[in-house]
Specification:
472 residues; alpha/beta; Rossmann fold; six-stranded parallel β-sheet; 18 helices; binds nicotinamide-adenine-dinucleotide
Length: 472
């Protein structure tokens, strides 16, 4: 099928490359000339596993890039809109990019088209897109508007796209649903997965993925409700972690006990410094606004957001409790991206924490395997950037772990201890076993687990029973 994808960001580029890998002819449209030039030069503008491979496989054949929306629409049966929907100052979704694309599409409709919302949008957006297209000259029956929300996670976007937990098609006519079913057919009938050159199957993937057909409005709500629920899970476990810290319990053990309940499940029960990224913060605010417009005060979401913000303050207090005063303290920081595996720093808790620590007078030397360049633009030049984790730790009063990159979980601890001025690690992502850190000579702070230091491992000289150190 001939497909246009409008927007070549984290979602649009991945969707375009994956549709091409499924066998479709795809044109990805963007109005950012720099991005288009980079894509046409053969570069991959974002850090995402398997994406360079797919771009290399299909660029110039089944996958092309263009700034000409009108021609792309005329040449395509389905147009996926994957432009940004950032928050306004009031917390609503700014749909002006979606509207502008809808107007552009309207003028080019010359035969039946399916216009698909891939961006995360509030419920009723499909109605608005339909109205805008009609107002701008298209006729009833010449097009349908569908919602096909995207659930990929940055860092594993390509495998998430090709091996999703489910595909949701929100279509209000059978004709429109049939087009979307045809697009996803190689996944739903399983033929894609039989190909020797298919992107490798990740653990836990369900093959073939289930396809869920709903109304457009239900599909729009599925996306907002899913993100709100996941954020709620994170804030919930962070609240539990705070109680663990107060009473000396170990949140990892608590998570194991909760997560083995099949009704709850272990995923997204990872305490830390809170969620960030370009989706959860904005989608929660947008969902709350939509609910309010519909006459429902979704106070649960207020609390999810509040716990998330508080989690960063708790972390700052932890740094203070480890170092006493902060002015003039030198901190090594591991991680700038909002999560491991990506170069995306939008709403990254790491960046927000660095800014707060800088405001308190700390000197920061940071390292991230992929997000360094983007972070340089977002942070002022008073931050030093290191080329490795050990360089970031060099001469620091403490090391902070703020992003869960795999490489941060397997550091050479002897080398790290030798680099630091004081062997103090404050881990906002619980990457290490506290007991092992103390055995390696570190005073180790983490989230929801007792703080431990080498002295606590030495048996006391008097006859009182030794204090128990909980192992994780
Ligand atoms: N990033 C994620 O992990 C993720 C996951 C699921 C859903 N989403 C949703 O998908 C949407 C896109 O997110 P993203 O992270 O890919 O955004 P992004 O900012 O990375 O990309 C958006 C792209 O759209 C382009 N664009 C904007 N206006 C345009 C126009 N008029 N014509 C052509 N191109 C235009 C921009 O130049 C940019 O390249 C958002 O609604 C987001 O909430 C994102």
């Amino acid at each position: 099928m001939k497909i246009a994808v409008v927007g070549s960001g984290y979602v649009g580029l991945v969707a375009g490359a994956c549709f091409a890998d499924l066998g479709h002819d795809v044109v990805v449209v963007d109005n950012d000339q720099q991005k288009l030039a980079a894509l046409n030069r053969g570069e991959c503008p974002i850090h995402e596993n398997f994406l360079p491979e797919l771009l290399h496989r299909h660029r110039g054949t089944r996958l092309t890039f263009s700034d000409d929306l009108q021609s792309a629409v005329r040449a395509s049966a389905a147009i996926f809109v994957a432009v940004g929907t950032p928050p306004t100052e009031q917390g609503e979704a700014d749909l002006s990019y979606v509207e502008s694309v809808a107007r552009g599409i309207a003028g080019a409709i010359d035969s039946y088209k399916v216009v698909v919302e891939k961006s995360t949008v509030p419920v009723y957006t499909s109605d608005w897109v339909r109205k805008i297209i009609l107002r701008n000259g298209a006729e009833h029956g010449e097009f349908d508007v569908a919602s096909n929300p995207e659930f990929l996670r940055e860092g594993t976007a390509v495998t998430d796209f090709l091996y999703p937990d489910r595909i949701v098609i929100g279509a209000d006519t059978e004709r429109c649903a049939a087009v979307l079913r045809e697009i996803y057919a190689p996944m739903v009938d399983g033929t894609y997965y039989l190909r020797p050159d298919a992107i490798p199957r990740p653990d836990r993937a369900q093959i073939p993925p289930p396809l869920i057909t709903t109304s457009a409005k239900s599909a729009e709500l599925i996306k907002h409700a899913s993100n709100a629920f996941l954020a709620m899970k994170i804030s919930f476990i962070n609240a539990v972690a705070s109680i663990c810290e107060s009473v000396g319990a170990n949140v990892q053990q608590v998570c194991q006990g909760i997560g083995t309940d099949s009704r709850i499940g272990p995923r997204f029960l990872n305490p830390g410094i809170g969620y960030g990224g370009s989706c959860f913060p904005k989608d929660l605010m947008a969902f709350r606004s939509v609910a309010r417009e519909c006459g429902y005060e979704f106070r649960l979401l207020d609390e999810v957001i509040r716990i998330n913000e508080e989690q960063r303050q708790r972390f700052i207090r932890k740094v203070r409790s480890a170092l006493w005063t902060l002015r003039g303290k030198k901190l090594g920081v591991l991680g700038l991206a909002f999560k491991g595996g990506t170069d995306d720093i939008r709403e990254s808790p790491a960046i927000l924490l660095i800014k707060s620590l800088q405001a308190e007078g700390c000197e920061i030397c940071a390292y991230d395997p992929a997000a360094q360049e983007r972070a340089k633009e977002a942070l002022n030049s008073s931050i030093k950037h290191a080329e490795s984790a050990y360089e970031a730790a060099e001469g620091a009063d403490a090391l902070l772990i703020l992003t869960e990159w795999e490489e941060f979980a397997s550091l050479d601890l002897d080398r790290l201890r030798a680099a630091l001025k004081y062997p103090i690690v404050i881990d906002g992502r619980n990457l290490y076993d506290p007991h092992a850190m103390a055995m390696n000579g570190f005073t180790y702070y983490s989230v929801g687990r007792p703080t431990i230091s080498p002295e606590l491992l030495t048996p006391p000289k008097d006859t009182r029973p030794a204090r128990k150190i909980s192992r994780s």
